[in-house]
User: What shape does this take?
Amino acid sequence: MKITGVSVRTFTYTSQVGRDSEGHGHPAPPSEATQSLVTIETSDGVAGYAFGGIAAGVLERDVKPLLMGRDPFYRELIWQGLKERQRLNLATLSDKILTVVDCALWDLAGRALGQSVYKLLGAYRDKVPAYASTMCGDDLEGGLDTPEAYAAFAEWCMDRGYPAFKLHTWQPPVPGAPSPKRDVAACAAVREVVGSDVPMMLDPYHYYGREESLYLGRQLEKLGFLWMEEPMDEHSMSSYVWLARQLDLPICGPETAEGKMYTRAEWIKHDAADIVRGGVGDLGGITPLVKVAHLAEAFGMKMEVHGGGAANLHVLCAMGIPGLFYERGLLHPFVDYETPKPWLHQLEDPMDDEGYVHVSQEPGLGQQINFDYIDRNLVASW
Assistant: This one.
């Protein structure tokens, strides 16, 4: 089996989520948006798929030369080759591109062998508990505009069956943000509603200083929180070493810091975090996320996966580290998360009434792709 084609299809859909000037997602009036599907084809007629974009020039210059004619099962070789090409092409060859190529190759392998990806990785479970992960705070009446609004939404999430709850609090350009005291008020309001036994987490403003972060951490300790993530710029690892040493509250990270498994290894070595963090989109695919999971296990640490989606879910269900959650969201009172995306026939992460998300048993990543919808709404392909 050899790779005979790599292509990208870009299509439109109607989105009800918009981005503010800082890039944070919020509910918004319906608008046209685009999504892309990458397809890797083989000489045996088997194909692999992953959602995400690759610019035409990058596809021709950097991706195809490493894939065309190659055995698609050589995922490690291909991933290492793309990683090495990043050294002189960081402006164009991002980790997002490595992610979409790697995920498509894992999907292809599963489809070729008739197995789910999590079983190819070494299955450990077929379901994982989820936590409700909110959108960032906003100034929308009835949205997530006050501590009381967070509490009301948390109560709804508990009724839905979520066993845990994470707040993303207010970020610029929302008026009054950032505010550590307002963040704590929201956390306290939610804790009062859900009770003392529900695991709770906080992802606040990402550029607080040391003093604000220490204040947040000490208040969250009083509220019995499970962890806090990314309260400061993650490029300053020494600031996280300083913070972690002063808190009993576990610090989870790094989340967005570049450097793949190498950065996570440095954070572990220097005791900058208590819980390791990583996701397919942060690291460059399933292949490096599994490396980080093994790294965390070797040091007796938990690893929390950043973000949802099929690829992250498959890795979670293959990891032999206990006590992990699936991040389901981002959730908001105005957003219907239970309706599949228009380019999928089914949800990627269906959750039962007990708060467990079940991984697909279908071959590959198990995404039920609506190819007819993609073809009807196609705007470009290369």
Observations:
- The chain has a mean pLDDT of 97.
- The first strand starts at residue 3 and ends at 19.
